[in-house]
Specification:
2 domains; 7-stranded mixed sheet; binds glutamine; alpha/beta; two-stranded antiparallel ribbon; Rossmann fold
Length: 276
Amino acid sequence: MINQGQQLLAAFSDSAKLDCKILLAFVLNKETSYLLTWPEKKLTEQEYQAFITLFERRLQGEPIAYITQEREFWSLPFYVSPATLIPRPDTELLVEHILARHLASDLSCLDLGTGTGAIALSLASEQKQWQVHGIDFSEAAISLAKKNAQRLQLPQVELYQSDWFSNVAANKKFNIIVSNPPYIDEADQHLIEGDVRFEPLSALVAQDNGFADIKRIAKDAQVYLTNNGALYFEHGFEQAAGVRDILKQLGYQSIETFKDYGGNDRVTCCIYLQLK
Ligand code: GLN
């Protein structure tokens, strides 16, 4: 079964065998290791039909994570839905850098465009005392993020709908503001290939060559950052210089870019120093 499916999927998925294993294990409600342990197991007619239904969705290009409604991020299980981006390993870089640089236990942090809640909930899982807020424009994303908070037993994280800062309390200050905003230019070829075709465009595409939301967040963040507060962005691999320019023009200090696991510029951060 796996071998047959693999040949069919191979035409478009570079992880065809793994895709088949994940779908089969999902139908059997087991880990993929079960397939190795019981290779001779015969599927019931019902299991076979269930597998074929999911397999056909995958053949249409639907991402595995939308079919199984789950994706691991920061070694935590997250529910995903077509209302949100599928969390990417590269985004773990934001979590990693924030945790390495901010060691105090009493900090506050805002995640803008939280989607599944991946960044906000991962940070909260490591720093239980932090006051973490996660906002998203999409109500559907917020209800999914709340489900994830419940599943991960992180009820202290505040998740609410907001158009960037529109519903963030005006007097609230954060030590850390982080965002993986939409940053892809609408003409980017990447949008018509692979998994991204199924993801919400509102989470991917930004005006102004992909810089519009980064600009808006960087500007408005100055009202909500504490003195010495830090701002972190994920961005496109060719956008680092552009993001640094935006931050420099707004007067941010200590601007730095980090590379992702593929060696591409992916995260830029900076510090906000209030002028007396
Ligand atoms: N990194 C994602 C991609 O290239 C985009 C994520 C985003 O726009 N925030 O598909």
